[in-house]
Specification:
about 15% strand; alpha/beta
């Protein structure tokens, strides 16, 4: 081969390689500087992709919340005024044993409106300790009691254990929150990620059971579908702290068989019975495989006649919502959530 022909072959090979690179790898959005700072801290704390870990290791490694707290500490940012919210740990009775819950109480006399909050973690990892930032900020901002619910985790307790616990906790709050100085006529549900799915399911279950419908649903990057080939999954396949392989890992650990992923409690976007549930605030992150899920669910709610306030925040990743102290977009998202919850509470009788 002549040098000229070799050069042509090399150029052709390079062009083919360029064409074969997935568009989402080239076009993946970049985190904003403050979000990147948290991600860099998370890496420095030794956090690894969930898909590479055993469940016990995944449960004990550093979390995005740890990284955000570390950045907050490095910058000497005060934990007030949210730190002034008081907390009380309680047990909610259930047929499978008590469910732990943390009750956040703002200052004042009450009775207070109430938010039943479900944490994220793919139904496998995390707990009410990891997810402290959002319920604390919501309690302060909305001047509401927030009941952060601990539910059973997979793989020890497969689907639908968490969903059963979410409904049990909601029913208990409706019937008993007056004993904690809460107003049972002003109850909203909220959740992040897997917890957003649980919150949405509680609203749907309340309609199905003809029980008290929450006055509002706050759904933060909820798991709402079973399609892992959506635009956002492709665009953010390798995103941190949550990528496509990580979601596959969570699903594998949660379900008994892949047929469970078709269940309407997981695949909310496959449902046709969304009419009549509470108005919703849907908060999404640009750099998140779950973004398309949330966009689709918000659109389906709107099509069913449900009032929806949808907002996607650019430059941030999954898990950003509770990072209001160090990520500006998280503070904006919390402010939106508080505004919508406050409005819903003021309308409720």
């Amino acid at each position: 081969m002549t040098l000229q022909n070799f050069a042509k072959a090399a150029l052709l090979s390079s062009a083919l390689l360029t064409v074969s690179v997935p568009l989402y790898a080239q076009d993946a959005p970049k985190p904003a500087p403050e979000m990147q700072e948290v991600l860099d801290k998370l890496a420095a704390l030794g956090s690894k992709p969930f898909s590479t870990l055993t469940v016990p290791d995944a449960r004990t490694q550093a979390t995005p919340a740890d990284a955000a707290h570390a950045v907050q500490w490095d910058k000497r940012i005060s934990s007030n005024p949210e730190a002034q919210v008081t907390t009380k740990d309680i047990a909610i009775p259930s047929k499978d044993g008590g469910l732990a819950a943390r009750v956040y109480v703002p200052g004042g006399e009450g009775p207070f409106p109430v938010v039943v909050y479900y944490h994220g973690g793919g139904w496998v990892v995390a707990d009410v300790n990891v997810y402290d930032g959002a319920p604390r900020a919501l309690s302060l901002g909305a001047n509401a009691i927030v009941v952060s619910v601990e539910y059973r985790h997979a793989p020890e307790h497969k689907f639908p254990a968490a969903h059963d616990d979410a409904w049990t906790a909601y029913k208990w709050v409706v019937e008993n929150i007056h004993e904690l100085n809460g107003n049972a006529d002003k109850i909203a549900v909220a959740g992040e990620s897997a917890g957003g799915n649980l919150a949405a399911n509680v609203a749907l279950m309340a309609k199905e059971m003809k029980a008290k419908q929450p006055v509002h649903q706050l759904l933060v990057y909820p798991v709402a579908g079973n399609d892992m080939n959506t635009a956002s999954y492709k665009e953010n396949a390798d995103a941190k702290p949550l990528g496509k392989a990580d979601m596959e890992w969570f699903v594998k650990n949660t379900v008994s068989s892949m047929d469970d992923a078709k269940d309407p409690r997981i695949n909310l976007n496959g449902r046709s019975d969304l009419a009549g549930v509470a108005p919703a605030t849907v908060i999404l992150a640009q750099i998140d495989p779950l973004r398309s899920d949330g966009e689709t669910y918000a659109a389906k709610l709107k099509d069913a006649g449900v009032t929806v306030d949808l907002k996607t925040y650019d430059g941030v990743t999954h898990e950003f919502f509770g990072m209001g102290k160090v990520v500006p977009q998280a503070k904006e998202a919390l402010d939106l959530a508080v505004s919508d919850l406050t409005a819903a509470f003021s309308k409720a009788k």
